[in-house]
Amino acid sequence: MALSTVYTGQPARGTRAVARALAGPAAAAGGIGLACVAVWFGDPTTPGGPLPVCPTKLLFGIDCPGCGGLRMAYSVLHGDFSAALHYNAVALVFGALFAWSGLAWTMGRLRGRTMRSWLHWRWTPHVVAVVFVLWFVARNVPFSPFTGLYV
Predict the structure, then answer these.
(1) Coil, strand or helix: which one is 62?
(2) Is residue 25 within 8 Å of 113, Cβ to Cβ?
(3) Nearest to 124 by CA among 99, 108, 101
(4) What pLDDT digit, counting tens, does each position of 13-22 carry?
(5) Which end of the chain is more exposed for a tag (fewer CB within 10 A), N or C?
């Protein structure tokens, strides 16, 4: 029995269709949940813990655009959003944008048609690239006020 795509143009009706539509988002949510559990118990804010150090920071001694992401996630899980902003403000913003995309993906699967999010905008790859390059450079500039971005 071949399963048809969930993007048929018709909303998911019935238990089986809804379960098939929600299988992908549920699997993604489960994976994210497991990652959150690992970050919660791994406590990346404590030096020498079980979670790995960023390879860029380890090899070159500079912050990459993702450096501080685990500490940011740990702070968000504990409700400390000011610390999350300090560790990685760009990752915090992109986390919120990806939550929006996940919700749009789930709703699209239930409604049977693609729901547009920021990932579907034509200029998204260019803006993301510019933001990452600027973030990478700004947090590694060796004078004030940029040294406050170094984690």
Answers:
(1) coil
(2) no
(3) 101
(4) 889 989 999 9
(5) N
